[in-house]
Specification:
The complex is a heterodimer of chains A (495) and B (318). Chain A has helices at residues 3-37, 43-72, 76-81, 86-118, 129-150, 156-181, 186-195, 200-215, 224-244, 250-259, 275-308, 316-346, 351-358, 364-396, 402-405, 412-436, 439-455, 465-489. The longest helix of chain A is centred in the first third of the chain and has 35 residues, at 3-37. Chain A starts with a helix and ends in a 6-residue tail after the last helix. By secondary structure, chain A is an all-alpha fold. Chain A folds into 2 domains: 1-249, no CATH class; 274-495, no CATH class. Chain B has 13 helices and 13 strands. In chain B, strand 1 (13-24) and strand 2 form a beta hairpin. Chain B starts with 6 loop residues before the first helix and ends with a helix. Classes of the chains: A mainly alpha (495), B alpha/beta (318). Chain A binds chain B through residues 253-255, 257-258, 260, 262-265, 267-275, 277-278, 281-282, 285-286, 347, 350, 352-353, 355-356, 358-363, 490, and chain B through 61, 63, 83-84, 86-87, 91, 93, 95-99, 101-102, 105, 108-115, 118, 120, 123-124, 127-128, 131-134, 136, 139-142, 144-145. Chain B: Residues 15-241 form the ABC transporter domain. Chain B: GO terms for molecular function: ATP binding; ATP hydrolysis activity. Chain B: It holds the Pfam family ABC_tran. Chain B: This is ABC transporter ATP-binding protein YtrB.
C-alpha cells in the first residue's frame, strides 16, 4: 500500500474510530440482552431492531457524514490542495463507511453463533452468515445512495435531509410503479427493489426465507440475479459519489457577487423591536425549511403508499391515507426531529460563528429558551400537519370517523406517545449536539439512547404506555437541562 | 497595591488589567498581565500567534474567567456583568463569520435590538460608505465586504470601546489599507477608545497611539508609540566596545554585523549619551514598529543576565 493510501486511511480511521467503537458496543449491548435477562424470545426482536437500526438510521447518518463532513468542517479546500485527487479521499471514506456499517452485522453474527453453540437458538432458527452480510450490505447501500445524492452539501443536516427525502421519494415512486404498471411481473419488481437504496435487504429476506420454502417443498428462488443488480447499483452510486466528491468551487459565486457593483438603497428597513423578536425570527428561518421538507416527505410517502395499496382500502382520501400517514409520520418524523435537534445548535456552535453571538449582549438563557421552544414547536407542529390536514379533510367530507379505524379511542395514546417520543428525540439530539458539537456523533448517540429506551418496552421491564410517556418525559427533561448547562457554560466534550 | 476599580481610574481608563493569570489545564496562557488603556486612545495589542491576545480579549468580554487578578472594562467587571460590558463594547473578531443565510439588511436588523444604543441611521451611513449590498446574502460577500460588515455591526451602537481582534487577517494589502483608513476615519475621528490586537505591525503602526507587546503570556513592554520609537534603537558599533558598555545597556537583541555588533537597546538615550561621553564611534538606526516588535519577541535576550552573557559571547576574547 502506498504512503498516500496509508495516510488517507489513517485519517479516516482517526476520524471514525470512536463512531465505530460506539456502534459496535451498542450492538453488543443489544445482542447481550436476551442472555442477560434469559429471554430467548427477544432474539428476533433484537434482530429486527438491529436490522432497522442498520438500514435506516445508520445508513442515513453514515451517508450524511460521507456526503458533507468535509464541507461542514471547512476542510475541502485543504483536500483539494493536496497533490493527490480528492477521489482517493472519497474511496478511503467509503472503506471506513463500509467498516462502520458492517460492524453491527459482524457483532450480531458472532453473538448468534455463540447462542447457537450454547443451545439458546433451535437449530432450525439459525441465521446464516450470508443473511448478515446482506444486511450490512443493505446498510452500506442506503448510506451510499444518501452520500451520492447529497454529496458536497454544506453540512450533515442538509445532506441527511436531502438524502432521506430522495430515498423516500424513490421508494414512494417504486410503490406506485409497482401498483400501476407491474402487478404481474414479480421478477421485475424484485429486480427494481434490489437495485434501490437498501435493496440488498431483499437478498437477506430471500436467504432467511429459503429454509421455509424448502420445508414447504417449494423450489428455491435464485438470488444470483438480485446480487448482481444490487452490486451494480451500489457500484454505480459509489462511482457517482467518488466522481463528485470534493469537486466544489465555493469561491465562484462569491467572486461574482463581490465584483458586481452594488447599489446601496437610501432606506434600510427598521430594526426588529425586541431581542426576543429577533431570536424568534432567526429560529423560524432556520427551523421551518427542514420541518416543511419533513412534512412534505411524510405527505408524499403517505400518498404514494396509500395509492399503491388502494386496492385494499376504501379510497385514497379515506382511511387508507390517514392510516398510512400516521405510521409514516411516526417514522419520518422521528428522524426529522433528530436532525432538527442537531440543527438547533449546528450553526451557533460552529467555532467561527460561536463568538459572533456570544460576544453580543445576548442573555444566554433567553437565547436558549427561545431557540429551543421555537424550534421544538415548529418541528413537531409542522411534521404533524399532514396527518392533521388529512384528518380535517376526512372530517370535512364526512368520511368514516378516524377512531373507528384504530378501534375506539386506542389511537389517541399511540399518537400521543409518538408525539412525546419525537419531542424526546429532539431534546436528546439537541443536548448531544450541545455537548459534543459533532452532528454525526450526536445522531448516533441519540439513536443509542432511543434504542436503550426501546429495551424498556421489552421484558423484563415491559413498560406500558403511561410508564413510557413518563420515562420519555424524564429523559427529555434531563437532556434539556444538560443541554442548557453546556450552552450556558460553553462546555463541550473534548475541547 | 492600589485598587484598579476606583472611580478616578475608571473615568480615565477604558481597560484595566491587574495581575491577571489564566491557564488552560497545564498551559499558562497569561502570566501576571497588568496594563491600562486610556480612554480615547488607539491601543495596539501586539503579540505573536499564541501569545495570549485572544484569551485576553475574551476575558475583557466576559467570555472567559480569569484564574487570578482583576479586570475592569469601562469600570465594570466583565465576569460579573458581561452583558453590560458587551452592550458598551463593539467587538470584531479575528476572521469574523456571520450567519451566511442572512442578507446584509437582515443581519443589521437582527443585531439591532440587542443594543439599547443602536443607531440605525448610523448603520445605514456606514453601509453606504462601505458600499455594502443590502440584499446580498452574507455567504456571497467577499472577504473584505465581510470584514466591513462586521465593522458596521461593531460600531453602529456607538460603543465607548471598540475591540478589534486581528480584524484585517486574510485581507489583501489594498483592503488592509482601506480598512485602516476606515478605522481612522470612523473611530479616531470620533474619539473612541480602540483596542486593536494584531500581529501585523505595519498595519497598526500608522494608527496606534500606544503599544503593548505580549510575549508568552507576559507583557514585555507598554508605551506610547513615540516613546517606544525614541527608546528602542539599534546601535552598530565595534565589538570591542561591547564589554565596556554591557552593564549600562538594556539589550533586546544582539547581532554580529561583520566586525561590528548590532545592538538593539530599549534605553537608547542613555546609551547614546554614554557612547558620546566615552568617545566610542557608532551608527544609530531608527527602527519601525515591526523591528521593535521583533527585537522584543524574537530576540534571544530574555533578561539582564542573558544580555550580559550574549555581550560577552559576541565581544572579542582578550
Amino acid at each position: 500500500m502506498s504512503g498516500v493510501w496509508r495516510s488517507l486511511l489513517w485519517k479516516e480511521w482517526r476520524e471514525q474510530r470512536f463512531k465505530l467503537l460506539a456502534i459496535t458496543l451498542f450492538t453488543a449491548t443489544i445482542v447481550a440482552w436476551p442472555w442477560l435477562f434469559d429471554s430467548n424470545g427477544t432474539l428476533y426482536e433484537a434482530f429486527v431492531v438491529i436490522g432497522f437500526f442498520c438500514i435506516l438510521s445508520l445508513g442515513l447518518f453514515v451517508g450524511a457524514s460521507l456526503a458533507a463532513s468535509e464541507r461542514s468542517q471547512r476542510t475541502v479546500g485543504f483536500l483539494q490542495s493536496l497533490t493527490h485527487s480528492t477521489r482517493r479521499t472519497a474511496i478511503a471514506k467509503l472503506v471506513m463507511a463500509a467498516l462502520t456499517v458492517a460492524s453491527p452485522g459482524v457483532v450480531l453474527f458472532v453473538a448468534v453463533k455463540v447462542w447457537e453453540s450454547l443451545g439458546y437458538i433451535p437449530a432450525n432458527h439459525g441465521i446464516s452468515a450470508a443473511a448478515f452480510a446482506a444486511i450490512a450490505w443493505a446498510a452500506f447501500s442506503f448510506a451510499i445512495w444518501v452520500a451520492a445524492i447529497a454529496v458536497n452539501l454544506d453540512d450533515e443536516v442538509r445532506a441527511g435531509a436531502v438524502g432521506f427525502l430522495a430515498v423516500a421519494l424513490f421508494w414512494g415512486v417504486f410503490a406506485v410503479a409497482v401498483d400501476q404498471w407491474l402487478p404481474a411481473s414479480e421478477e421485475l419488481i424484485q429486480a427494481m427493489a434490489a437495485s434501490g437504496p437498501g435493496g440488498p435487504l431483499l437478498i437477506s429476506i430471500e436467504i432467511c426465507e429459503a429454509p421455509q420454502r424448502e420445508f414447504a417443498l417449494l423450489p428455491p428462488r435464485p438470488i444470483g440475479r438480485l446480487v448482481v443488480l444490487a452490486a451494480i447499483s451500489t457500484l454505480a452510486m459509489a462511482l457517482l459519489y467518488v466522481w463528485h466528491f470534493g469537486r466544489v468551487a465555493p469561491a465562484q459565486r462569491k467572486s461574482v457577487e463581490s465584483t458586481a457593483k452594488s447599489v446601496v438603497p437610501a432606506w434600510l428597513a427598521p430594526p426588529m423591536r425586541k431581542a426576543w423578536n429577533a431570536i424568534l425570527w432567526k429560529q423560524c428561518c432556520e427551523s421551518l425549511p427542514l420541518s416543511m421538507l419533513g412534512a412534505g416527505a411524510i405527505l408524499c410517502v403517505s400518498v404514494f403508499i396509500a395509492v399503491a395499496s388502494r386496492g385494499d382500502q376504501g379510497g385514497i382520501l379515506r382511511d387508507g391515507l390517514l392510516a398510512m400517514s400516521i405510521p409514516v409520520w411516526i417514522l419520518i418524523g422521528g428522524l426529522v426531529t433528530i436532525v432538527s435537534g442537531i440543527g438547533l445548535w449546528l450553526d451557533d456552535l460552529r467555532p467561527e460563528l460561536h463568538m459572533f453571538w456570544r460576544s453580543r449582549p445576548i442573555a444566554t438563557g433567553q437565547w436558549f429558551v427561545l431557540k429551543f421552544a421555537t424550534s421544538a414547536i415548529i418541528t413537531l407542529a409542522t411534521l404533524a400537519l399532514p396527518s392533521l390536514v388529512i384528518y380535517g379533510l376526512l372530517t370535512a367530507f364526512g368520511e368514516r370517523p378516524v377512531w373507528n379505524l384504530y378501534g375506539g379511542d386506542d389511537w389517541r395514546m399511540p399518537v400521543l406517545l409518538a408525539l412525546i417520543s419525537q419531542f424526546g428525540f429532539f431534546c436528546v439530539a439537541a443536548a448531544f449536539m450541545a455537548a459534543t458539537r459533532r452532528p454525526m456523533v450526536s445522531a448516533l448517540l441519540t439513536i443509542f439512547t432511543a434504542a436503550g429506551f426501546g429495551f424498556c418496552l421489552l421484558p423484563p421491564f415491559s413498560l406500558e404506555a403511561t410508564g413510557s410517556a413518563v420515562v420519555i418525559a424524564a429523559i427529555s427533561a434531563i437532556a434539556t437541562a444538560a443541554g442548557w448547562l453546556c450552552i450556558r457554560n460553553d462546555w463541550a466534550i473534548g475541547r | 497595591m492600589s485598587q484598579v476599580s476606583n472611580s478616578d481610574a475608571s473615568a480615565k481608563f477604558a481597560i484595566e488589567l491587574q495581575g491577571v493569570c489564566k491557564s488552560f489545564r497545564r498551559t499558562q496562557v497569561l502570566s501576571n498581565l497588568t496594563m491600562r488603556v486610556e480612554r480615547g486612545k488607539t491601543f495596539a495589542f501586539l503579540g505573536r500567534n499564541g501569545a495570549g491576545k485572544t484569551t485576553s480579549i475574551r476575558m475583557l468580554l466576559g467570555l472567559l474567567n480569569r484564574d487570578q487578578g482583576e479586570v475592569r472594562v469601562l469600570g465594570l467587571d466583565p465576569t460579573a456583568e458581561p452583558l453590560k460590558v458587551r452592550a458598551r463594547v463593539g467587538y470584531l473578531a479575528e476572521d469574523q463569520q456571520m450567519y451566511g443565510w442572512m442578507r446584509v439588511e437582515e443581519i443589521v436588523r437582527f443585531v439591532a435590538p440587542f443594543y439599547a444604543t443602536w443607531d440605525h441611521d448610523l448603520a445605514l451611513k456606514y453601509l453606504r460608505e462601505f458600499e455594502l449590498p443590502l440584499a446580498t446574502k452574507i455567504k456571497h460577500l467577499s472577504k473584505g465586504q465581510n470584514v466591513r460588515l462586521g465593522l458596521v455591526l461593531a460600531l453602529a451602537h456607538r460603543p465607548e470601546l471598540v475591540i478589534l481582534d486581528d480584524p484585517a487577517l486574510g485581507l489583501d494589502p489594498v483592503m488592509r489599507k482601506q480598512f485602516n483608513r476606515d478605522l481612522v476615519t470612523h473611530l479616531q475621528g470620533e474619539g473612541r477608545t480602540v483596542f486593536y490586537s494584531s500581529h501585523l505591525l505595519y498595519e497598526v503602526e500608522p494608527v496606534a497611539d500606544e503599544v503593548a507587546i505580549l510575549d508568552g503570556g507576559r507583557l514585555v513592554r507598554q508605551a506610547d508609540t513615540e516613546t517606544l520609537r525614541r527608546d528602542v534603537k539599534q546601535f552598530v558599533l565595534d565589538r570591542s566596545a561591547l564589554a565596556a558598555l554591557r552593564d549600562d545597556m538594556s539589550v533586546l537583541e544582539l547581532q554580529r554585523a561583520g566586525d561590528d555588533a548590532a545592538v538593539t537597546v530599549q534605553n537608547a538615550s542613555a546609551v547614546r549619551a554614554l557612547l558620546d561621553r566615552e568617545g566610542i564611534g557608532y551608527r544609530m538606526n531608527d527602527l519601525n514598529l515591526d523591528e521593535i516588535f521583533a527585537a522584543y519577541v524574537a530576540g534571544k535576550v530574555d533578561d539582564d543576565a542573558g544580555a550580559r552573557a550574549a555581550v560577552d559571547e559576541l565581544a572579542p576574547q582578550r
